[in-house]
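Below: protein 1.
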Amino acid sequence: GSTAIPGRRAPVFLANQFALVIRGLMAEALEPYGLTHQQWGVIVAIVREPGTDQRRVAERRNIDVNTASRLIDELEALKLVRRVPSPTDRRANQLLLTRAGARLQKMVQGPSLSAQDRALATLNKREKTLLCDLLTRVVEANRGYAVPGVGRRKPVRKASEHPSSALA
């Protein structure tokens, strides 16, 4: 047939539905702790790489630097994360969990993993591994599209802002 997808199941639709399922389960798990899934992602990034900086968190979480900054500000206001001047780069801050942040991370770890397990509960162990392997392969093969902002419409410039109008 001429269709690229067996049985006409559109990957874009399935991927969006899967993302909604995971986010919904994560929101349910994180809500009692007052965290969003994006805030939790920043905490996880800091746990995996203590002393990391805002730029690395943005890369690791696949979000833009402004979003990372906002999330770090929120976590700092909640007294869960603190910024410490980097000993190697005067322009950067290292990110560390506070005592409260470390306690919360330990409490949320279990419910977070359980939420992800619930999303895949219908699959056996081999199928879970296969699904993650296949998703990883697809993402890795298309890495250039897995960046913040891809797919958004570019802002339309007014004629007065257009570079060629400066020549007129």
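Below: protein 2.
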Amino acid sequence: HYLKFPRNTADAMLSGALQATLGAVLQQYAALQNSRAQVILTGGAAAQLHAHLSLPVHLVENLALKGIARIAQENAT
């Protein structure tokens, strides 16, 4: 689980990956702040990321599967 100061390898790996991802999201958000871009979180760690972000965020479950279903519907005709 996430810890600010992890004390074992597993917690350090998870905490480091989460911090790196949060840093990337925050940096990209700052770069796009004057645009109409939205922050959309999806995937297995979306809820964990959301818990540590103070940005306006949209959580979308199964975004990849929804995209595949839409492509399949469009190609069914």
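The first strand starts at residue 39 and ends at 41.
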